[in-house]
Amino acid sequence: MKRTIKNLTAIILYVLLLCFLLKTEALLIFSPRHIAMFLTGCIILCIPYLEKGTRWSEQKGIFKRNAITAGYLESIMLIFTTMLQKEITWTGLPAELALDLRPIFYGFVCYLILGESPHGPEQDLPANAEEPKENQEEPPKLDMSTLTRQEKQIALLVQKGMTNREIAEELCISESTVKKHMSNIFEKLKITSRRDLR
């Protein structure tokens, strides 16, 4: 969480510096109305992916992916409505289109803020955690040779921190099929939880 706040602070300072260097017109990129619409869109797009007990790192990943989607969707709608306005002249059109692209900018800012930590994808070390030592023994690697091709794919996606629903969407299979494969994986690898795969 601290890393997210540091990323946000650094990006805001950099954007403000750019606005200062590019003169006051660049401040038009900050539209409270469009930012509110963008955040509302992100939240709505995240709802189908949230499940009870979803970890912070999973929520972060879901929001990060949907921020880009929400930015594109809002920008396309804004461009569409701009083109329908009859009072806009061809000389004023580039300026209007530039303003309509703001949500894409917001999406990329969210993507950068919620980016991967240096400790691995989507997971920050707790404040009191020590850095991994080189001479520490690593846990034994799991022998996945007994798994089928699809079970191996699912195991790798679980290692990336994906939920059953996300895996189902990624592989274009049902969530119940993913659960059945997970049961087989646990049995073949003699493990009892998803954490044992990581």
What would you note in describing this structure?
- With 198 residues, the protein is mostly helical.
- Helix content is 60%, strand content 0%.
- α6 crosses α8 and α7 (164-171) packs across α8.
- The longest helix is centred in the middle third of the chain and has 29 residues, at 56-84.
- The chain starts with a helix and ends in a 9-residue tail after the last helix.
- 18% of the residues are buried.
User: Biggest sheet, open or closed, and with what strands and sense?
Assistant: none
Helix content range? 55-70%
The string of secondary-structure elements, in order, is: HHHHHHHH
- Structural class estimated from helices and strands: mainly alpha
Gross geometry:
elongated
Distance between the termini: 21 Å
Per DSSP E runs of 2 or more residues, the count of β-strands stands at 0
**DSSP strand (E) fraction?**
under 5%
Q: Regions with pLDDT < 50 over 5+ consecutive residues?
A: 117-129
Radius of gyration (Å): 22 Å
Mean pLDDT, nearest integer? 76
Quickly count the helices. 8
Query: What is the subunit organization of this protein?
Result: single chain
Per-chain topology:
Layout (H helix, E strand, L loop, with lengths): L1 H20 L10 H15 L9 H29 L8 H8 L1 H12 L35 H11 L4 H8 L3 H15 L9
Helix pairs in contact: 1-5, 2-3, 3-4, 3-5, 6-8, 7-8
Task: Name its key features.
8 helices; mainly alpha; elongated; 198 residues
In short:
By secondary structure, this protein is mostly helical. It has 8 helices and no strands. The protein has helices spanning 2-21, 32-46, 56-84, 93-100, 102-113, 149-159, 164-171, 175-189.
